[in-house]
Design brief:
Largest sheet: 6 strands, antiparallel
Order of helices and strands: HHHEEHHEEHEHEEHEHEEEEEE
Distance between the termini: 55 Å
Radius of gyration: 24 Å
Number of strands: 14
Structural class: alpha+beta
Strand order of the largest sheet: 9-14-10-11-12-13
């Protein structure tokens, strides 16, 4: 095929444009903000998938829960610990209309990410891809529903004389929008996982490729202006096991450690009913402080360059040969996150368990939604950077 013919069949950004969702008639400002965020989110999922971006797609449902916008009765956990929507329930907190600024900020962030995708990055994407067609179907169905003229029973008249959707109708539309967002997320995630499995099968067919016990550590520095620097971190043998790490983390989890109003001071209530500062309090973001404290209490002796700073921990781990891929995660490991998707690690927790059947990792994380909490992630989640392996100790590593 000549160059002109190749260009004629090449996919462009305009080829993967999704239809815009309309603002429902008589909707509140809050509902319209949710529609706009869902609009850009679903386009974002397709654009990032088509470009082959390895940072993973944002999970809008998880973002809602993290921002405390998803109501308690609007969410539930699946058997494997993943968070999902509870059909038929009120999906957003009652004051979501007051939170429309958060939705607008998220919309701007996603749009900037979309705009940053280079046209050439999606040149080989096939617009007949089943995942893309499925997403188009989801969006088309939502567009039809949001375009419907409301009936009289779905409207109420405000004191100023203007018509407005009833609370029940707004909740119904919110439910449909977020269910659509959830379905798009699952569709793209499943497609992305399938591609990774295919790539893994090809890898297994090449027996002579060099391998090490834990696999090569991801090179975070190559994806960001931040780059690894020299490290003088060291470790000496201790007496702990991965089981000891998890036990210490669970002890703290049972205390119900949390902040007050995002003040970065983790507290717990003692047996005497009084509030006490957690021993890993540093009056600042404390996810790293909790993780390194847990290792130390479990008998692991690591002299970190900066035990309270995630990029330093990941940098030290790479220099000490303790960094590894997410696929090699085991209980007791530290797990490193890049929530911003910019290549710089920005969060860390402790791996509590790994389920190879479901491909999910359960964690215990400090400073997660301003508290110490257990979370669950797919091993394919783009926010997961890698794991830090506990150094060898005198005690045998637990299975």
């Amino acid at each position: 095929m000549d160059r002109a013919g190749w260009r004629a069949c090449m996919t462009t950004l305009s080829d993967i444009d999704l239809e815009d969702l309309p603002h429902p008639a008589y909707a509140s400002e809050g509902l319209n903000a949710v529609v706009d965020a869902a609009n850009v989110y679903m386009q974002n999922a397709v654009v990032l998938f088509a470009s082959g971006w390895d940072g993973g797609q944002p999970d809008m449902i998880a973002w809602l829960a993290d921002k405390k916008l998803l109501s308690a009765d609007g969410r539930k956990l699946t058997k494997d610990g993943a968070q999902t929507l509870d059909p038929g329930s009120s999906v957003l907190v009652d004051n979501y209309d007051d939170k429309r600024g958060a939705f607008r900020d998220k919309t701007s962030q996603l749009q900037a990410q979309n705009d940053g995708v280079n046209e050439s990055a999606i040149a080989s994407f096939d617009t007949s891809n089943k995942a893309f067609q499925d997403v188009k179907g989801i969006v088309a169905g939502l567009k039809t529903e949001l375009s419907r003229a409301p009936g009289e029973h779905q409207l109420t008249r405000l004191p100023d004389g203007n018509l407005h959707l009833t609370a029940a109708e707004e909740n119904r539309l919110l439910q449909l929008i977020l269910e659509g967002v959830d379905r798009v997320h699952d569709t793209i995630e499943d497609a992305d996982s399938g591609m990774q499995r295919d790539a893994g099968d090809i890898y297994k067919m090449i027996p002579d490729l060099p391998r090490n016990p834990y696999g090569n550590a991801p090179d975070v520095g190559s994806r960001s202006p931040w780059a690894p620097t020299a490290s003088n971190a060291t470790w000496t043998r201790g007496t702990g096991t991965p089981d000891d790490i998890v036990a210490k983390a669970r002890e703290q989890l049972a205390l119900g450690v949390s902040e007050s109003g995002g003040n970065n001071v983790p507290m717990f209530r003692g047996p005497d009913g009084k509030l006490y500062k957690a021993p890993y309090n540093i009056n600042d973001a404390w996810c790293a402080a909790f993780s390194t404290w847990t290792w130390d209490q479990a008998g692991y002796n690591v002299d970190w360059t900066n035990k309270n700073y995630v990029p330093s921990i990941w940098n030290d781990a790479k220099h000490m040969g303790l960094a590894s891929n997410i696929s090699n995660a085991q209980k007791g490991d530290m797990i490193i996150f890049d929530w911003e998707g910019d290549g710089t690690p920005d969060h860390v927790g402790i791996v509590e368990s790994v389920d190879p059947r479901t491909g999910r990792i359960t964690t215990i994380e400090g400073n997660s939604s301003d508290q110490l909490k257990s979370n669950s992630y797919s091993m394919n989640a783009g926010s997961l950077v890698g794991v830090v392996k506990p150094p060898s100790n005198n005690a045998a590593r637990a299975s």
